[in-house]
């Protein structure tokens, strides 16, 4: 699998550290139920999923990678700081 880092270009996935699904974090003052869902409840979809990857062996950037979990096709890569709020739950790059 190849991931195209916005700073370094296309690289092998072994240069990156996979952190998990890119989830929308609840507000600090959110209800306990929202925090419970954020921390403990996860779906395991087959299809497009926004994920967090760290370019450990490269520039050190955190990336939001939209990847099809069934085919491993990379659909979109962005700096995590540039990701649109809500994109993680909406399945859109």
What does this structure look like?
This protein has helices at residues 32-40, 87-90; strands at 2-5, 9-12, 17-21, 48-54, 62-68, 74-79. The protein is mainly beta. The protein has one domain (2-26, 47-90): 2-Layer Sandwich (Folate-binding fold). It has 2 helices and 6 strands; from the N terminus they run E-E-E-H-E-E-E-H. The strands form 2 sheets. It has a 4-stranded antiparallel β-sheet. It has a two-stranded antiparallel ribbon with strand order 1-2. The chain is globular. A hairpin with a 3-residue loop joins strand 1 and strand 2.
In short:
The protein is mostly beta strands. The protein has helices spanning 32-40, 87-90; strands at 2-5, 9-12, 17-21, 48-54, 62-68, 74-79.
Layout of strands and helices, then pairs:
Elements: E1 2-5, E2 9-12, E3 17-21, H1 32-40, E4 48-54, E5 62-68, E6 74-79, H2 87-90
Antiparallel strand pairs: 1-2, 3-4, 4-5, 5-6
